[in-house]
Every structure is written in C-alpha cells, then in structure tokens.
Design brief:
This protein is α/β, with parallel strands linked by helices. It has helices spanning 2-13, 39-57, 126-133, 136-149, 167-178, 239-243, 245-256, 261-270, and strands spanning 73-77, 92-98, 110-117, 160-165, 183-187, 204-209, 227-231.
Length: 306
C-alpha cells in the first residue's frame, strides 16, 4: 500500500517535459517498407486497431472519442452496474467485432464480442483509490465480465475479447488471467495488477508508446507477460500526452491502414493525420493499403523548423 501510494503521488507530480529520440523497435531497419513501419508492426496494428478504438471509446463522455468506429465494430452499450459496484469509478462498454468488410452486410461474420474497460478518469480521486490503491475495480471488472458473458443476449459460442487503456489495461489483464481462453489487448497499460504474470501470456498483446508516463512505474511491478509492441509515434510529446489513448490509437489505426482498407476508412472518416514521426509532409493524406514505397522513408525525431 505504501509503495502504491508513493507511486501514485509521484505520477501526479511528474514533470511532463521529457523528449525522447527517434528510437523504437518498429523502425530503422524498415525504411523501404510502407510508411517505414516494419511488417510485423503493420500486421499487429491490423489485428489490434479495432481494440484500440474500443479502448478509446470506453471513455464515455470524453470529447476525443471516435465518431466513426469503422466497419468492423458495432457498439452494443452496457447494462447498469449493481448498486454495490456503483460509485467506484468503474466503467466499460461492449462492442461486436466483425470480420473485415462492412457490419451492414447481411453476410457479415461476427468474430468476437469485446468488453472495453475504461481507464483512470482524473476528474477525481475515485479511480485511483478503488483502482490502484485498492483492488475493488479488479473484482468489479471480473463480475461485469462474468455477468455479460452469461447474459441470455449472448447465449452463443462467440468468443470474448477484453481490452483497455491504462487502468483499463490492468483490468483486462486480470480477466485474461482468471479466464485463460479470453484474448486481451492492452494499450499503455498500467503495471498495477495482482494476478500471475505468466498465466495466459500467449493470448495478450500490448501496445505502449515509448516514454509514456506509466512506463516509469513498470520497474516496480512485474509486467504481465505478453507480446509487446513499443511505438514512438510522437517523440516530441510530453510523457502525459504520450500516455493518452487517442494519440496512440490514431497511430495504430494509421499504421494498420497500410494493410487494411477498413482501417483506411477509419483514418478518412475521423480525419486522422499522420504520426509526427513518420516521413512526409505534415498534412500528407494516407497513401492507402496498396501503397508500395519507391524511396526510403526517413522518420523524424523532431518537427521541422521553419
């Protein structure tokens, strides 16, 4: 408890003026690939971008949600929490995930249902108290998952996927540990969780922005085993901006659009601009899923000076 308290206080008082160089696992060797992003990163982004959108839109009421969530997702809402779980800062949303194509197609294939757990809301201390200093939100998240999975509306064999950003990522981790058949995708995930790190490790995927603030605390807890992708989409951003879900999700969607027409539709529908680190003019349109570079893509660690 003392360690967590100190960590939270430090989190709230850290300076946000750190800038990181143009280094990440996803570039340098891949300058002749689409957008300069390595193929394994592009493939992972195609797989993960719907979950990044769902994790973003779990922050119900925020002003930077996706207005158009794309053809692979359908928002299903959620059910009210039991009285005993209310007032503890917990929130989630449910989405249907369809195979590539449009979810308006009568032949669409439902591949998964998603529970997206909301991360910390800094409007108050509630999330920090019940989600980090105590384990209340872990138990609430597990109960919410069990309740939704058992609901008559979902009485079929469609698999469940959990996702979340920050604290929501820790909650998704906990559910994936309790239920090893559940796939999990986490974004800038919190290192504060309580389960065994290795349980279900092959079915978890994490995307972190290099230098985001919670990575400073990952040293204090064993990170949950997962396939981890470290991006450096906004090297000039401060550590708190790097932690936000929308910039990271936009970057993942942009990278995915080099291999997915559905992701390209999301880029255009939401006016997503290129990551600041990617080569090209600041206002360049996305070249599309069929783009093949003719010259090397040189990433930029700093904005061009006039």
């Amino acid at each position: 408890m003392i360690r967590l308290t100190v960590s939270v206080i430090a989190l709230l008082t850290l300076s946000g003026c750190v800038t990181y160089p143009d280094i990440s696992q996803s570039r340098s060797p891949c300058r002749m690939e689409a957008g300069g992003w390595c193929s394994f990163v592009r493939d992972a982004a195609v797989e993960a971008y719907p979950y990044a959108i769902a994790a973003t839109n779990a922050y119900t009421g925020d002003n930077d949600l996706y207005e158009d969530i794309g053809p692979q997702l359908e928002w299903l809402g959620k059910r009210p929490l039991p009285p005993e779980d209310e007032g503890k800062g917990f929130g989630y949303e449910i989405f249907a995930h369809y195979a590539p194509g449009t979810h308006e197609d009568p032949k669409r294939v439902l591949v998964a249902r998603i529970i997206a757990f909301r991360g910390t809301d800094f409007d108050g201390f509630t999330d920090i108290f019940y989600g980090t200093l105590r384990n209340d939100q872990i138990d609430i998240a597990v109960r919410a998952f069990e309740r939704e999975r058992a609901h008559p509306d979902f009485a079929d064999d469609v698999p469940w996927v959990v996702t979340g950003h920050s604290l929501g990522g820790a909650l998704a981790t906990e559910v994936s540990i309790r239920y090893p058949n559940v796939r999990a995708y986490m974004f800038n995930t919190s290192p504060f969780y309580g389960g065994d790190a290795m349980t279900n490790d092959m079915r978890r995927t994490v995307f972190n922005e290099r230098g985001e603030v919670l990575r400073r605390f990952a040293r204090f807890d064993e990170a949950p085993a997962a396939e981890v992708f470290t991006l450096n989409c906004g090297p000039q951003n401060d550590t708190f901006t790097k932690h936000r879900i929308r910039p990271l999700a936009d970057c993942i969607v942009w990278i995915a659009a080099y291999g997915s027409e559905d992701a390209e539709m999301v880029v255009k529908a939401n006016g997503i601009t290129r990551p600041m680190v990617e080569c090209g003019d600041e206002n360049k349109p996305h070249p599309g899923a069929d783009f093949r570079p003719l010259v090397p893509c040189v990433h930029q660690a700093r904005r061009d000076e006039e």
